[in-house]
Each structure stands twice: as C-alpha cells, then as structure tokens.
Amino acid sequence: MSKIQYSEDFAFYQQLKLYYDKNRKKIRSRYNSLTKKFLDYNDKESNPDAYLRLPQFEALEIYVFIKEFMDNPHVFEMFDDWRKSRNKFADASYYSVNRNGQLSIFDAGTEAVTDVLFKQMKKYEEKYPNYIYALTMGLGKTILMATCIFYEFLLANKYPKDKHFCHNALVFAPDKTVLQSLKEIITFEKSKVVPPEYTRVLDANIKFHFLEETGTTLHTIDDSDFNIIISNTQKIIVKKRRKEQKPGEVLFGQGSLLSQVYSGEDMDDAWDDATLIDNQRFKKICRLPQLGIYVDEAHHLFGADLEKQIRSNKASKTSLRDTINMLAARTSIIACYNYTGTPYVNKQILPEVVYAYGLRESIWNGYLKDADPIAYENVKDVEFLKIAVKTFWERYGGKTYEGLKPKMAIYASRIEEAAEEVRPALEKVLAELGIPANTILFNVGDSKHTKDEDIRNFNNLDVPKSQGNDKQFIIFVDKGKEGWNCRSLFGVALFRNPKSKVFVLQATMRCLRKITDEKQRATIFLSKENYDTLNAELNKNFNMNIDEIKSTSSKPKSNYKVHVMPPPRTITLKKIWHEFILNEKPYTSAISFNIEGIDYRKYQSFMYEKDSMARDMAMKQTNIDYIKEQKKFSILTLSAEIARYLNISCILVSKLLRECDDGADKVLEAVNKYNDILDDVVIPKIFYCLYDVKAVLRTENKEIVLLREPKNAGYYEFSANDSLVISNKFKYLTKEEIKKSFHADTYCFDSIPEKECFMQYLTCDKVKEVYFTGMFTANQGDLFVQYYDPNSGRIRHYYPDFLARLDNGTYQLIEVKGDNKLDDDVVKAKAEAAKEMAVASGVEYKIYPSSEIMNSHILKYLEDNAEKNKYSEYHEQGNILMVAEETKQYGKK
C-alpha cells in the first residue's frame, strides 16, 4: 500500500469499550480494594447518589482499566495486542464493532484496516503513553479530570513505590478563558467523587499552584509529591530565543553570577541548545517525580497540526507538544491525558482516543439541553434582533430555573458594532417589550466599555439572588469559545458572519449545558448563512449534521478519499472584465416601472424553524414580513430621496413620477410596502431614462488548472451516497473510457441526473474528454465563474458541473439542474455569467434539465449532426464527380 490512510468506519475506542463491558467483572476483580471502593462510590449502580454522570463514570472506568489492568501501555501497543488477540486480550471476542455500533466478524477486511491504523499509531508514537478522552461540551470534562487526579493521588499515597500512578499533576489550558474554568479543580468539593473517609488524606497532602500571571513564580519543593499545577501553555512553554541579549540581561539574566546569588535556583544545568529560554516554572516542574500531564480542550494541541502530523512526514509538531516532550526527557512522565470535545479532526477519528461520548447521544440521553435552531432569511440585522429577542422573551420571560433567570447571548462582530449598533437597538427592543434596560450586560473585552462590575456580574450569571443573575441579555464580541459555562443560557443570537466558521459552532453550543432534572430546550437564532455554517461545522467536527442529530436512523452516506490523478488537466479560457462609459441623455418619454409585474417573493422575509435538535422534525417556513421596519414615503419625500441618490433635480424626479405609465400612487404604494423596490426598480429605471451606459468588454487568455493537489494531505474527503459514486476502478468501464476522464480517481455525484449525464458523455464517441468539476467547490481548482448573486448582493464563485472536449476540438461547460430550479434567479445569474465567459473563450455553455437527461440521449444531436455532415459531404462529392464527368463528356464533344 503506497499511502497509509485511516478508515473512518473503524474506531479502536469502541473495541476497548466492547471488551471492557464483556469482561467487566473479571477486570474489576484484579483491582486493589481502594480502587474498587473509589469506583463503587462513583457508580450509580452501587451508589444511587453518585455525582458523576454516566459518560464521566464510563471514562473513569476506562482510565482505571488502562492503568491497572493494562499496565499503562501506549495505545498502539494495546491496539496491536487486541487485533492479534494476545496478552491481556487473549480472550477477546472475534467480533469488532463499527462506528454505528454494529457487530461484525473480525475478517480479512477488518484486519487490513487495523494493520493500516497500527502503522499510523506506531509511526507517530511519543516516548510516553498518550490518551485522548473525548466528551462533548457540557458533560463535565474538568470534573472528570479532577476525579482522575484525585484517584491518582489516593493510589500514589497508598502505594508510593508503584510506578503506575502519578505523584504530581500538570494541567494545561489552551488560553486564559479555559484557565479560569480550571479553577473548578481547586474549588470542587472532593467528597462528591472521593469517598468521605479519604478526602482528609487529599486535603492534607494536595498543594495547588495556579499560574495565572506570566511572572508568577512556581513555589514547589523539589522531589515533592501531590502538587497540582494549573497553567495555560504560555506560562510553561519553552521557546526559542529570538534576539540577542542586552548587556543588562547578560548581567542580571538567567545563568549570570547575580542571578545565581539572588535567585536561589541552581542555574548551572544548561540543557540542549543554548538558545532555548527555559523559565523558572519549567525547571521547577522538571524536578517533580512521576508527573501526569493533563491537557484540557486538547484539540488546541492537536487540531490541524495533528492532521498534518498524521498525513505528512515533514509536518512540525506544536510548541506545546515540544514542551511536553522536553519535560519527558528531564523527568518521569507517567502519561499525557488529553480531554477534548470531539474524537474527530475534519471528520477523522484521532487514533489515540480511548473513550468518546458524542453530542448527539448527549442530547438524546438528557445530558444536554435540546435546541430549536431558527434561521432568518432576507431580514436586516435590526429586524433579526427584534424578532429574536421577542421570541426569546415569549418563550422564557418571567421563568426561573433552579432560581436562575434565563439568559440570551447576543454576538456582534466588532466592539464598535456592539456599542454603536447592537446595544442601542437592543435597548429600543427591550423598551417596546417593557423590559428594563438594566437587564443588559455588556462584555466585549474592552475596559472602555466593560467595567469591573460588568465582569463581576458576568462571573455571577449562574449565582441565584445576585446582580449577575438579573442580567438576561449579554452582548458579546468573541466570547463563544471554551471555558464559558453558563447553565442558565437559553438563547444565542448570531446574525453577522464571524471571521471564524468554527466560532459559529462554539458560540451556539454554549446554550446546551443542562439545567434542572427535566429536559429543557434552548433556542438558537441565526442568519440563514450562519445556519448553513453550523450544519457544515457539525459535520466537520462531530461527523454529523443538524438533520442527523434529530434522527436516530443510520446515515445513507459514506466517506470517500479522493486522490488527484496526474498529469494536471488544464484549459485556456478568457478572463473578462468590463469598462463603462456614462453619457447623459434628455428625458423624452414616460417611464414604465412595471409595478404590476414585480416579483414580490424575493422581498419577503422568512423564518425557518426546526422544533428540536434531537428529534426528526421537519423544517417549517413562515412569512415574517411584519417584522420589517419599512420607511414610509410621501411623493415629496420619495422625490427627495431619489434626487439625493442620483444627484439630480428634485423637480425633475417629481415630474418623472407624476408622468410615469404606472401612476405615482402605485409606485409610492409598492415602495412603502417593500423599500428595497426603490433601489431595485425605481432608481435603476430613472437612471437609464436619463443616462446611457456603454460597456466595453476586455479579455485576456488565462490557463487554468482543473484540480490541484491538496495541501498537507494526500487526498480530498467527500461524503456521498454509495450509489452515486464512480471511480476509475469501476469494472464496467473500458480502458478507453477511463482515459477520457478521471482527473480525480473518484467522482461523488449529488444526484442521479448528474451521474447519468456523466455516463452519457463518457460513452459517446464524439466526446474525447469529460471531467466532473462540480464536486470541487472549495478553491481546489481554478475552473469557476464569478457572478453576482441577486439574493445576497455579493460576488460569488460558481463551479459548473462538467467540462467536456468534443472530437472537433471544441469545449463545453455543462450544468445539470432540476426542472424546478431553471427559473431560479441565482441559477439564471450563474448561467448568464458562464455564457459570457464561454462565448469569449470560444466555449459552449449548456444547461440540461434533469428530466431531459433521464428521458433522452442528450448527445444524440452530435451523432445526427455527424450524419448530416456525412450526407452533405457525400452529396457534395457526388456533385463534384457529376460536374467532372459532364466536363469530360463536353470535352469529348
């Protein structure tokens, strides 16, 4: 196998869970009495009052299982034993379980998959065991982490010479926000997860060190035990020195005579490269034995870097990983325990996950709130805010949950927008609803707008009878990431598109944290574009979409790895642009605005709502024109508005309106109903009545590549229905047909008509090449057409479905569309832009209705034309022969 790849359908953590469940009694019989007592205290079957939720307890069971039964192995070692049924797994079942929970025999196909996965695990192993526990947001990863550390210290205290257990713990947070949430490890009441008779042992021995500030000194005693050091990465991390030291730094800096006198530290142990800056905290940690590393929100440690690490030999590791590796080289690390919200990176299961509990299961089983996502289309931001707040108040106003008032998070994209637009608009909406303005909390990370009292109230949002609890509408800028825990959050409003797409996922998921023992439902308010982004991010980070969260049925789609096939396919097309010349002309005849013929559908506002994220509920569409704040004009003010816009005489505009074919009253009525008609219809008609615009087309040749190699990976990933996939290994294709196509080894079609269109082109003798380009819509190639989207008012990229070269050397750009989409404004805009480029490039643009493809041979006209040409050529040659024969006969005469 030339390239090592993962299988998305196989996850080792599921095999571990299956083995543990089948052998639970035997495994637990091997534990010492203290471990059994600790587990029983947290097991609801043994202790109905146990504090941990089922996912937390299951993760704890796997944690103990790996440590005490499996002897702290590397994941790849454990995996290799499992797949070969040896050592601890000698009695493992011959069955394996796939990602959907279905059992299957461990056959040759499964063995091939596991062999690939083993090689990947082995290739990227660290010197210390590395485990990942993936529990979705809101399940309590911080409490789980604290429980694991308490377990470690209890066992280390009882068995001090046992090398399996951690005597010290270093807890890493990715940023300041998560660092604050980790204070819960310090304040958490230990008796909730530790048998009461042992809590005093922990209280007497544990020493907490919270490194909040960069200059904080770490006061640990060398070779001491039971230290819990909580820090974000920047407080510990080792960096390369970027510049030469100044004279003062040489005199007083680390390693100098004065620093040795005043610091009290042993500074003569210079490690590795002399350019490394190793701070005091790092060196103190290196003097602590049997260290356990705990990484919170571990996707910051892995993330895209893990993907590069998995797929490329040349990828560099993260600086945090380097720091952990340097610690491992200087002290004894028992293991690195990583806690994250998802086992996936770009839909790929992380290889070292040993336990996972997903978002969908958490909602179904009541560990998180359900959610009602509502999308709004064709509304303005103020209108969006008004209906979102009104809907929120109708659903949650006046209610309390565990003594807490329901909260709504409202996101702005910039501080200026939050202060100058969102807050005044929110105050106005609240005034109309009779809600006091002091229920607003403004937290935007800027001391000019957010005072200490605001921060205090923000930290007390979930504290009953506090001023913070009275704040119900919180305005944020970039406060949707990890570490913000507010159980009383019942609503999220996000209208503007943030720079980061994953922010949409992070922000909207904040409102899912459970509150009360009853199932509650939050409401997520989004623009239609952000709704689509949320769907895409759910798919990317949780391998699901919104519809799949609502349904327990199995997915009809499979994942495919699509490789680029050499050589790169190219085509030369025309790059086109327009230059415009404006000429004034006199007013000669009345204007027809065609008010009766306006399509009002595109001016209507709609709300799309799904009643649940955890049930299979249909999306409902509702007209919400009533929320639009339309400016009301008179003929006088309308004339003034148009004159101001076009910079022409008000008297002239008034005359044009009075004399128009539609009548001024009808024009006024239409504009007052939908203000957008003024910009879309009235102003353009008056403009073209008074001016001529001459467009000059400019072009230049440009060679474009149909498909480029992916960056930092050997393939692209697509999800498709198996019946709509064709590869270059399809056994029913001839060698000649395969040569005609497949610039990628696999084509994943969206519909049966697309697949049928491809097959008709592929099998037609008049077609020399045909490529499916419509699946590569993420800047993977250069074949796209820029067009103006009439719905969003933006310039967008359009990717035609196919590119074909015929036997006469001409090219075709081909689009397949459902019959019901042919009159769509966006489809027409795409076709118009594509035809313009195609004509300039000498290319034919064709758009096929789906029904035509399915019910006819769409390329029959090529064969008919060939027959006609052949017939014409035959008769032409016949006429020439007849003339020649007559001439010959005439010569004889």
Outline the structure in words.
- With 893 residues, this protein is of the alpha/beta class.
- Among the domains are: 205 residues, Rossmann fold (3-Layer(aba) Sandwich), CATH 3.40.50; 190 residues, Rossmann fold (3-Layer(aba) Sandwich); 152 residues, Trna Endonuclease, Chain: A, domain 1 (3-Layer(aba) Sandwich), CATH 3.40.1350; 35 residues.
- The protein has 33 helices and 33 strands.
- The protein has an eight-stranded mixed beta sheet, sandwiched between helices. The protein has a seven-stranded parallel beta sheet with strand order 5-6-4-9-10-3-13, sandwiched between helices.
- It is globular.
- The N terminus and C terminus are likely disordered.
